[in-house]
Design brief:
The chain is of the alpha/beta class. It has 26 helices and 27 strands. β10, α22 and β11 form a beta-alpha-beta unit. α10 packs across α11 (165-180).
């Protein structure tokens, strides 16, 4: 850890953050590290403070971000002096600032709104707790110590919003004890649930259900954190200039009224992927946020292609994105392209030049980099406006070669924010565009186009991941400079999942260089790869929604959490069958050669016995096949398969006992085993084996190819390996069994059909299947490694 990071870590510990959180911030979130360090200095608590004060200071950044910056000094003073000391008071303060906007306010009105100096007496708490108990007495007496203390606390705090939550909780617990006395044996027993005819929860699900506290409003509705469109008058951000001036960006009432008239007050969002590759699971979270907010508020969401770079974009990617958005269950309000607005963007660029906010520059890439590092202005920064207008027109007409000129924004080269270093707005590219053809010779950059198109489309909520947070100053500076409507911007944490990479650059590299079998390789967490693997959009959406919409950046979500949701879905939807991956021939010597017994096998484990559709027939004949791993030449403790003289139960059939082993010429390799079955089922062996019968006497069962997948990377976070990340690829991430044996009941399966292969996992029919030879991809194993509380 570098000295600067050590200092930041020490500061974070001084204000009461736990060490794990503090180290995670310093290691994984440079923006939050910088902002929190600055906030601690601004609050004047570099020598430390009590933990409750520190947690409130931390919440100012992580919960409220750049809100009410103009009033932050006053707020910090109230927090440090303990005049604001609870999260309820902090929430009330920001609600007050939302309506105050940039205006000065009266401290007495602020203090009244936030409950400053309001002392809630013990008598007030006792009286309110007594009233809540009387209202809920019947439930309390029925549930006794299983009564939710959290719910009761919430009821009290509705009446006494400025009461200390811990004091309220303590009084409630004391009153419960006074009412109910000591806990009885019945109080300590787990509640028995009424038997219902529905699927039993797994052990993991039970543990989760027992551990979940009463959900907050934000957990029930993650979109509740976003303001309504009519509230978009507050200061969005403060742009601090190196000369000491401050630009406070917000909509005027006239601009907002005009916007609301166009939108009717509805929420408008956008999902803006760049068509330079296939979408991955991180985009699934973005879709859930963008489309989800619009759907929850009864609004609309654009699918907008951010197609400002003609060299990287392909029609293949454009078609894929639209198709995968529909597959994920989202319906765009309109499909638009940034290129639809190229003329408007060009006209606004001309206007910027006229207003003195942009200029044509002739520095090359290396010179621009050098001047930025040294915070130096370009030699062409102060060129006359008419000259820049003329040169920009020549750029448009293709009269200047690529690399010889750019249009740059005139921002602040000495700013502490590198995203204010005169960003490039236009560059010359003599490349035909997939959408506009060869009409243009200049193309806008993302930094220039994104915010303007948000405004032109009347987007109410511009939602993006936290790496774009430092671009907020440039976003609002540009809209302010043009006098355009300003959307509400919110940054949330990027989705990072273990044992994979989600950088488009890295994904493109391993696809192009054939480390994997295309963008839809089932080992990738691209949405096409997940679909090919057999993952459903329902499972993906449940996974990303469960993560919430937080600003806790740097978190690494374990892939087992995704797999947990996949299993939950497939356990309900995938019919059961039996497949043997590595067959071992078994001869049932006490079953006649020509005898075949038709047995009932269950497609669905919890199906009713009187439902014929829940069953399929499996034929038990003299020759069957089991897994090689289900036989050992020598028995051992805790092994429940077959061994000489040992018994096991054939799934849906009878117990069998091994009576003889036939070896190959090397006397080591087992060719087949002989068994006797117990038609009376007198033997009760522990082991249960799946199996596949010969299709007919002397003929093998149908053969299928089965592909099993493991994590593509050995390390949980291959990005930490920097340039050595390719060396971390798991050479055993794909294992192919070409000649597995399957029941004939699945021979007519089609691409996309999913089954549970009993004792093995969930498998989906792959697009490589051919007539007479099905190919299956393993979607996920049966074992669930996800634990509640783990990331």
């Amino acid at each position: 850890m570098v000295p600067e990071d050590e200092k930041s870590l020490e500061l974070f510990l001084c204000i009461g953050l736990d060490e794990r959180t503090a180290r995670d911030i310093v290691k994984n979130n440079r923006n939050l590290t910088f902002d929190l360090t600055a906030l601690i200095h601004q609050a004047g608590v570099t020598d430390g403070c009590d933990r409750s004060t520190g947690i409130l200071l931390y919440s100012v950044l992580t919960k409220y971000g750049g809100k009410a910056l103009v009033h932050r000094p006053t707020l910090l003073e109230y927090i440090v002096s303990s005049k604001i000391k609870t999260s309820s008071q902090l929430d009330a303060a920001y609600s007050f600032f939302d309506y105050t906007g940039l205006e000065d306010f009266k401290l007495n009105e602020f203090e009244e709104a936030c409950g400053v100096a309001v002392e809630v007496s013990p008598e007030d708490i006792e009286k309110t707790v007594k009233q809540i108990f009387e209202e809920n007495m019947k439930t309390i007496l029925e549930q006794r110590y299983r009564t939710s203390v959290g719910k009761l606390t919430g009821h009290v705090l509705k009446s006494l919003p400025w009461a200390d939550p811990e004091t309220v909780r303590r009084v409630i617990e004391e009153k419960l004890y006074a009412l109910l006395g000591e806990k009885t044996a019945a109080d300590n027993e787990k509640p028995t649930k009424k038997k219902e005819k529905k699927e039993k929860p797994t052990k993991v699900e039970k543990a989760v259900l027992e551990a979940i506290p009463h959900p907050s409003e934000e957990e029930l509705n993650p979109y509740s954190i976003f303001p309504q469109p009519k509230e978009n008058l507050k200061v969005h951000t403060e742009v601090l200039f190196s000369d000491g001036s401050v630009l406070r960006c917000s909509n005027t009432k006239e601009v907002l009224d005009k916007h609301l008239k166009v939108t009717g007050g509805k929420v408008y969002t956008r999902f803006p992927p760049e068509p330079n590759g296939y979408l991955h699971i991180g985009h699934a979270k973005a879709m859930s946020v963008d489309f989800g907010l619009a759907k929850e508020r009864g609004g609309w969401c654009y699918l907008r292609y951010d197609d400002t770079n003609p060299e990287a974009e392909k029609k293949e990617y454009i078609s894929h994105i639209e198709e995968i958005v529909n597959w994920m269950g989202w319906e765009p309000f309109k499909i638009t392209y940034t290129s639809d607005y190229f003329q408007e963007l060009y006209d606004l660029a001309v206007e910027l030049i006229r207003r003195g906010h942009a200029y044509v520059d002739h520095q090359n890439a290396e010179e621009i980099k050098e001047y930025r590092e040294n915070k130096m202005n370009s030699p062409w920064r102060e060129r006359p406006i008419e000259e820049s207008l003329e040169l920009f027109d020549e750029m448009r007409r293709g009269m200047i070669d690529e690399g010889n000129a750019t249009l740059r924004l005139k921002q602040d080269m000495k700013s502490d924010n590198c995203n204010m270093y005169d960003l490039i707005a236009y560059r010359i590219k003599f490349t035909p565009h997939p959408h506009t053809g060869d009409r243009w010779r200049i193309y806008p950059t993302y930094d220039y186009a994104h915010c303007i198109v948000d405004s032109l489309e009347n987007i109410t909520h511009s939602l993006c991941t936290l790496e774009f947070e430092t671009r907020r100053a440039s976003y609002y500076w540009l809209l302010h400079s043009l006098g355009l409507y300003m959307p509400y911007v919110w940054e949330y944490s990027r989705l990072n999942v273990t044992n994979t990479v989600m950088s488009k650059r890295k994904l493109n590299y391993i696809v192009t260089n054939k480390y994997v079998d295309g963008w839809d390789d089932p080992r990738l967490l691209t949405l096409a790869g997940l679909r090919r693997r057999g993952v459903t959009p329902t499972a993906i959406n449940a996974f990303v929604r469960g993560l919430g919409i937080t600003r806790s950046d740097g978190s690494l979500i374990h892939v087992s959490r995704l797999e947990h949701h996949i299993r939950e879905e497939l356990n309900k939807t995938a019919p059961r069958t039996m497949v043997v991956l590595n067959p071992l021939k078994v001869v049932i010597t006490n079953l006649e050669a020509d005898k075949v017994m038709e047995l009932d096998a269950k497609r669905w484990p919890d199906a009713q016995n009187d439902d014929p559709s829940a069953f399929y027939k499996v034929a038990l004949s003299r020759v069957i096949y089991i897994e090689q791993s289900d036989f050992q030449k020598e028995d051992s403790k805790n092994y429940f398969g077959l061994a000489p003289g040992k018994s096991a139960l054939l799934r849906y059939a009878f117990p069998i006992k091994c009576t003889n082993v036939v070896f190959a010429n090397d006397t080591e390799t087992v060719c087949e085993i002989h068994v006797e079955y117990d038609p009376e089922k007198k033997i009760k062996p522990k082991g249960v084996l799946h199996w596949v019968p010969a299709s007919s006497p002397g003929k093998e069962p149908i053969k299928v190819e089965v592909r099993s997948f493991e994590n593509l990377f050995n390390s949980e976070n291959p990005a930490e390996l920097n340039d050595d990340w390719l060396t971390d690829i798991n050479p055993n991430s794909k294992v192919v069994v070409s000649d597995a044996y399957a029941l004939s009941t699945i021979k007519d399966a089609v691409v996309g059909d999913t089954f549970q292969f009993e004792r093995l996992g969930y498998y989906t029919v792959d697009k490589d299947s051919k007539p007479g030879k099905l190919v299956f991809n393993r979607t996920v194993t049966l074992k669930d490694g996800y634990k509640k509380g783990g990331k």
